[in-house]
Amino acid sequence: MNNRQLKEKVVLAYSGGLDTSVCIKWLQDEMGLDVIAMLGNVGQEHDGLEEIAQKARMLGCVAVEVVDMTEEFVSEYIVRAIAANAMYENKYPLLSALSRPLISKHLVETAHKHGATCVAHGCTGKGNDQVRFETSITALDPSLKVIAPVREWDLGMRPDEIAYAKMHGVPVSQSIEKPYSIDDNLWGRAIEAGVLEDPWTEPPADIWTITVDPLDAPDTPTYVEIGFAEGVPASLDGEELPLSELIAKLNSIAGSCGYGRIDMIENRYVGLKSRECYEVPAGLALIQAHKALEDLCLERDVLHHKLALEQLWADQVYNGRWFSPFKQALDAFMAATQHGMTGTVRLKLYKGGCVVVGRKSAYALYDPALATYEDDKALDQKAAKGFIDIQGLPIKTWAMREAARAKGGASTSPTFDVLDGASAEHPLARAVNC
């Protein structure tokens, strides 16, 4: 048995960039492992994954797997995100958080295929992705060891990493770090780092690539109609399209109208705040349209409770718990709400804005005969008096008791320590203790 056969194997999530390219040599030289590189296509921009795969082979990988995950990403991940109207902190459609569990799934499958005992990623110790990869991999196969070279190596700053790369024969296209860190997939783009780390600095124009400046957008509105079939976007302006094509086309249309930019302070799961910019024109538009359809078709209590569960769903996915029992239970609830979500929503896009201007469905719970303020016979308005009396009975009972207490001289206004240690002159304290 030779040394090659004795070596353990590790599957590396490989992007072709400096970090993961250095990871290959570090895993080989410092850990003594045979490296299998896995490249995943989730609809991101690239000049050709085969060229990146060839680079991995040149660096000595014993095998390279190129996996097209785009359709699976759409049908198993984006569809669920739309059903949950997934907006982390109610600010942005989940982006990287959606692709990481899918990539993790294929890392585990690749490890099983090649008999690898380890899986590796190129995430730093400050980001969310390390949590998403490692939690997902553990959920799918707890026996696999996870290695995070960037957290473990002693290479200091980026210049040290570049020097290590040159010393070990890793091609470095440029010695100067790119001004931004970008992650993208079919759903959109995430941009951070560089000058964006100053939250007072306006994002430079060159960070945006799929949206035009709203000032340069057309001077006339653009209307689009999105057709849904049981909650899944199925047509655009009457043309039935596979969801992946619909998203790509809507990204182009909405982006050309200057819609889809987000500049926000984000609360990372690891406990720090970061300034993040996103381009998600199709994601924002589809979720807005989907919400409008739900307003039309979902029963009131289901809709109200779904709003709270949507935030829990987004938190679970953002925090790397795609495969958790709780998230799977939330998926079941979301799926149960989508059976009647078939209809069409019309959006008006204009200079960075997007508003719903029409919605229709054969499953609508909206009844014009009930909603009208004109003379109608659909509802006996006199019945409202009994409804009000019954629903207001607990409040009436409480008010009568308080009135009796007031006559007896007892205070009817409780005092609260609203702000611990705050002055009684604080406006909030005065408002509550008045």
| Shape descriptor | elongated
Helix content: 40-55%
Low confidence ranges: none
Number of helices: 16
Side by side, the strands of the main sheet go 3-2-1-6-7
Intertermini distance? 84 Å
Question: Beta fraction of the residues?
Answer: 15-25%
Characterize the biggest β-sheet. Answer: 5 strands, parallel
How much is the average pLDDT?
88
Structural class: alpha/beta
Rg on CA atoms, Å: 27 Å
Strand tally is 16
Molecular structure report:
With 434 residues, this protein is of the alpha/beta class. The chain has helices at residues 3-6, 18-29, 49-58, 70-83, 96-114, 129-140, 149-152, 158-167, 243-256, 281-297, 300-318, 325-336, 368-371, 383-391, 393-407, 427-433, and strands spanning 9-13, 34-41, 63-68, 87-88, 92-93, 118-120, 145-147, 181-185, 188-192, 222-229, 232-236, 239-240, 261-267, 273-279, 343-350, 353-360. Strands 3-2-1-6-7 form a five-stranded parallel sheet, with helices on both faces. A hairpin with a 2-residue loop joins strand 15 (343-350) and strand 16. Helix 2 (18-29) crosses helix 8, helix 9 (243-256) crosses helix 10 (281-297) and helix 11 packs antiparallel against helix 12. The longest helix has 19 residues, at 96-114.
